[in-house]
Design a protein that fits this description.
The complex is a heterodimer of chains A (208) and B (207). Chain A is mainly beta. Chain A has a single domain (34-207), classed as Jelly Rolls (Sandwich). Chain A has no helices and 15 strands. In chain A, strands 3, 5, 7, 8, 9, 11, 12, 13 and 15 form a nine-stranded antiparallel sheet that branches. In chain A, strands 4-14-6-10 form a four-stranded antiparallel sheet, with no helix packed on it. Chain A is globular, with a radius of gyration of 21 Å. With 207 residues, chain B is mostly beta strands. In chain B, the strands form three sheets. In chain B, strands 3-14-5-10-11-12-7-8 form an eight-stranded antiparallel sheet, with no helix packed on it. Chain B is globular. At the A-B interface, strand 3, strand 5, strand 7, strand 8 and strand 11 of A face strand 7, strand 8, strand 11 and strand 12 of B.
């Protein structure tokens, strides 16, 4: 029988193996909406990791489509929890600005959106506004969440979305801020302000 | 001598190992310009994947240097595997700018950089200089280009140095307003060749 060797050692004499890189961006969990009221990522539940395993977490949002409320009042939004999802009401201070342009080339927008920021608010934070519900309309984007398990610092987040609005208008939303708590954030929830998440995928990644 | 086993097979009999995850972000293709009129990523060609293998694709544009001065860097998509690049786009565009001499720090909407149901190329960066040290770099995200249900959103963050020695940070975003799959992308300057530079295409896994 021939001897199989690793690094010129017989396999039976090998005492250590080289580390295998899994890459710096690790998929933790994918949630797919199907007429879902909310989508939640809770640390320790359903294979979700949202603790000190990673210093940075990245959420991606692919084709989030609302079931109803085809109006300016619609928004895709999120909140955080410090009690494993029992309550989503963490205090936040945030900023929001957006750029926009309509399909008929009659309106452009660039500016701060005071109606969508929070000042020590515990409500849900809007990530988009005016989402359309035509079959081909949706929003997509991403959100970075930094060090949610810290018990020293506030928890910063940065998000960027593009949305096809109900009035055939593209809008590029930039929302950032912090959860103003020194408790660990261990769960996060996403939903539309009105109606269900008809369809769409949210992926959670850990960044090494 | 004891026999070392893997999955209950003698090591010498093992024909395959369990697959190892390589991380969620996969480099698909690197294109390097050399006096190139354009650079194209076409699904199924030259090892390029631009289909439902990944839900999100990320382009990294690194030091694309124009052969001509004071021109724009731009891109378009294709729904016919690169036979034509002219998908209908609606987009918005804004820019922060600041001169090396400290002049005119400003943030403004750029009407010349947006599109309204247009099949023209989407401007990514404008007024780019062709001095030897001038170029454009950027990140461009495209969501679910293979969808046959939804429009295809894109968002970019583009940094360039203008011919007038200004730092320009531009933010074009919008959607390809089609329910056909977008299966190719083309990048070029508005005039002249891409003298040099690199564009990398990554896929972001969701499984």
């Amino acid at each position: 029988m021939s001897i199989v060797k690793l690094n010129n050692n017989s396999i039976k004499n090998v005492t250590t193996l080289g580390s295998v890189s899994l890459g710096s961006m690790v998929l933790i969990k994918k949630l797919t909406a199907s007429s879902s009221a909310t989508l939640s990522f809770v640390d320790g539940s359903s294979s979700v990791v949202l603790d000190n395993t990673y210093k940075e977490y990245l959420f991606t949002f692919n084709n989030m489509h609302a079931s109803s409320d085809n109006s300016t009042a619609q928004e895709f939004e999120f909140n955080m929890s410090i009690d494993s999802g029992s309550n989503y009401n963490v205090t936040k201070t945030t900023t929001t600005f957006r750029s926009g342009h309509d399909e008929s080339d009659s309106t452009t927008q660039l500016g701060y959106v005071a109606d969508y920021d929070l000042a020590q608010g515990t409500g849900f934070q809007g990530l988009t506004e005016g989402d359309g519900i035509d079959n081909d309309q949706c929003c997509s984007g991403y959100m970075h969440l930094f060090n949610p398990s810290s018990t020293t610092f506030v928890k910063h987040y940065i998000s960027c979305f593009n949305v096809a609005r109900h009035n055939d208008f593209t809008a590029n939303w930039f929302t950032s801020g912090y959860a103003n708590t020194t408790s660990a954030v261990d769960a996060i929830q996403f939903k539309f302000l009105g109606g269900n998440i008809d369809a769409g995928d949210i992926c959670l990644y850990g960044i090494n | 001598m004891s026999i070392v086993k893997y999955n209950n097979n003698s090591i010498s009999d093992v024909t395959s190992g369990a697959s190892l995850s390589s991380g969620a972000m996969t480099l698909i293709k690197t294109l390097t310009a050399s006096s190139s009129s354009s650079l194209s990523f076409v699904d199924g060609s030259s090892d390029v994947v631009l289909d439902n293998t990944y839900p999100i694709y990320l382009f990294k544009i690194i030091n694309c240097h124009p052969a001509s001065n004071d021109i724009s860097f731009q891109f378009q998509g294709s729904t016919d595997t690169g036979s034509s690049y002219g998908v209908t786009i609606t987009s918005s565009h804004f820019r922060a700018t600041h001169g090396e001499d400290g002049s005119s720090g400003a943030l403004a909407y750029i009407t010349a950089g947006d599109l309204a149901q247009s099949t023209s190329y989407q401007l990514l960066g404008g007024s780019i200089g062709s001095d030897a040290d001038q170029s454009v770099s950027a990140e461009l995200i495209v969501f679910n280009p293979s969808s046959t249900t939804f429009v295809k959103h894109f968002m970019a963050n583009v940094q360039s140095i203008a011919h007038s020695n200004r730092s320009n940070n531009q933010y074009p975003a919008g959607y390809f307003n089609t329910t056909s799959a977008v299966d190719a992308f083309n990048f070029k300057f508005s005039s002249g060749n891409i003298d040099s530079g690199t564009i990398k295409l990554y896929g972001i896994k969701d499984s």
